[in-house]
């Protein structure tokens, strides 16, 4: 006899519960679900059923992905299990492919390709973003992003394997290519990734007894500054530190063409490499485009209460939504976790207001600044406008992440890893579990690429 499956539409829906479906379990979706479930447990007069649809069974704490790529953290430490963290939610594992706004249904496809229709009374769209791509020959085939644990693990293993192969390589040109890493994007994600991979490579050099500067890092950005998000003074400091670690930072430069063996740069040079990481910004999830609704910079337009214009039962938040920034004229909030979490809270409140619980509010948040961990002994942070760098920023950065991780067991694991890092050498372990294809932008993030369309 087959076991009954967790129904996509809860059985007691007919009993009056409002069915709220949340698409995506990242910062915004997770927080929305958490708040709605808190209401579910405490208010039986206004019953709700909460369904969360996500391709993964965890909420990913993306800001620590560079630490995973650098071999400092285990991927499980930054993955918060949904079943434990969201008790009472109906979890549907799959990717939403279509939304019928009038019929109030959506279509989900699971990993095995099977489809399922899910009905909703209220819909919360929080599918986040994917790596932003450009029309560069060879990019989707040969570059790898940093938005998923698959990609972070791939980059870690790829660097370790290439350095290992380089040690046995007899052709000096090929050995040099294996020891060269190109990272595109010098805002916080790309800079953190480069710093962490540099630290990993330094440890390999120490343990395998070769000169760390034999491993070459090239960091590119079209902009004329690194990390414009932290301001000019801290950005200059970051540039100085990256260059002092032997990282070849080239501003106003990008990749023109990529092959499996080299990158042709816009400054006219060619860099032989086997490892290219692409962290040049994000674009809203492809699901947003499929809705056919008004968008701004590719993100779904919402009102200040995060509802979608002309669709009062549909809400959106996080990287996928163009949320008006009421603290600034004519701006939308940047795609950061800081905003996504707070928007999740407001969505939950306003969904509940729509069913007679409490009052609705607009989204308003003054940016608190950024924390950016740049590997051993260095970080920069600008909490509430105070500019910090070095050890002070490192302490603030790590404390911030430990505080923000939404589960005690994850916090403990990350804290133990940081402690271990202060005492022991970084572990050099490459499991090789992620294939080149699995880590491709199309497979790991579900980005439709031209070869698929
Ligand atoms: C390397 C890196 C470092 C970062 N560091 C920081 C930082 O230090 N501080 C900061 O504030 N921000 C940081 N960010 C940005 C931050 O991660 C994002 O702004 C944040 O994750 C956005 O939250 P979200 O809920 O909108 O989307 P996400 O957290 O990306 O979640 C989206 C969810 O939707 C799911 N999904 C996608 N498509 C579908 C679909 N079709 N159907 C169902 N589910 C779907 C995804 O699997 C995921 O679960 C960083 C990002 C990266 C990549």
TrEMBL record:
Keyword vocabulary terms for this entry: FAD, Flavoprotein, NAD, Oxidoreductase
Pfam families recorded: Pyr_redox_2
Region forming the signal peptide: none
Protein name, as recorded: NAD(P)/FAD-dependent oxidoreductase
An annotated Gene Ontology molecular function: oxidoreductase activity
Lineage: Bacteria, Bacillati, Actinomycetota, Actinomycetes, Mycobacteriales
Keyword presence, Acetylation: no
InterPro entries: FAD/NAD-bd_sf, FAD/NAD-binding_dom, NDH-2
UniProt domain FAD/NAD(P)-binding: residue ranges: 19-344
Species of provenance: Gordonia sesuvii
SUPFAM superfamilies from the UniProt entry: FAD/NAD(P)-binding domain
């Amino acid at each position: 006899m087959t076991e009954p499956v967790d129904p996509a539409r809860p059985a007691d829906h007919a009993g009056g519960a409002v069915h709220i479906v949340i698409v995506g379990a990242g910062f915004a979706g997770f927080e929305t679900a958490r708040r709605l479930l808190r209401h579910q447990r405490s208010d039986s007069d206004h019953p709700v059923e909460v369904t969360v649809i996500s391709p993964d069974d965890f909420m990913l704490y993306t800001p620590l992905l560079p630490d995973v790529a650098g071999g400092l953290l285990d991927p499980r430490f930054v993955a918060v299990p949904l079943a434990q963290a969201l008790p009472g939610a109906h979890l549907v594992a799959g990717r939403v492919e279509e939304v019928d706004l009038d019929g109030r249904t959506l279509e989900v496809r699971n990993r095995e390709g099977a489809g399922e229709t899910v009905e909703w009374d209220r819909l919360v769209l929080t599918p986040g973003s994917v790596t932003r791509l450009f029309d560069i020959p060879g990019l989707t085939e040969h570059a790898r992003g940093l938005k998923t644990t698959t990609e972070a693990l791939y980059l870690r293993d790829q660097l370790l394997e290439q350095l290992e192969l380089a040690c046995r390589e007899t052709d000096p040109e090929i050995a040099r290519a294996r020891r060269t890493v190109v990272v595109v994007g010098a805002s916080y994600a790309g800079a953190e990734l480069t710093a962490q991979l540099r630290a990993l490579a330094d440890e390999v050099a120490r343990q395998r007894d070769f000169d760390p500067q034999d491993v070459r890092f090239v960091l590119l950005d079209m902009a004329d500054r690194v990390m414009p998000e932290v301001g000019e003074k801290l950005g200059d400091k970051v540039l100085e530190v990256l260059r002092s670690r032997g990282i070849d930072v080239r501003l106003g430069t990008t990749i023109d063409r990529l092959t499996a063996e080299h990158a042709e740069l816009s400054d006219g040079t060619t860099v032989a490499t086997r490892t290219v990481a692409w962290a040049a910004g994000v674009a809203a999830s492809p699901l947003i485009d499929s809705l056919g609704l008004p968008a701004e910079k590719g993100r779904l337009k919402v009102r200040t209460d995060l509802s979608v214009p002309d669709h009062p039962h549909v809400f959106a938040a996080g990287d996928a939504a163009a949320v008006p920034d009421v603290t600034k004229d004519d701006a939308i909030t940047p795609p950061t976790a800081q905003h996504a979490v707070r928007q999740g809270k407001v969505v939950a409140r306003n969904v509940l207001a729509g069913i007679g619980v409490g009052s609705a509010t607009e989204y308003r948040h003054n940016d608190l600044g950024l924390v950016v961990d740049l590997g051993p002994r260095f970080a920069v942070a600008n909490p509430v406008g105070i500019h910090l760098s070095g050890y002070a920023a490192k302490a603030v950065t790590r404390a911030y992440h430990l505080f923000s991780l939404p589960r005690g067991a994850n916090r403990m694991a990350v804290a133990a890893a940081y402690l271990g890092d202060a005492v022991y050498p970084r572990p050099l372990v490459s499991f090789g579990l992620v294939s080149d294809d699995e880590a491709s932008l199309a497979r790991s993030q579900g980005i439709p690429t031209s070869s698929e369309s």
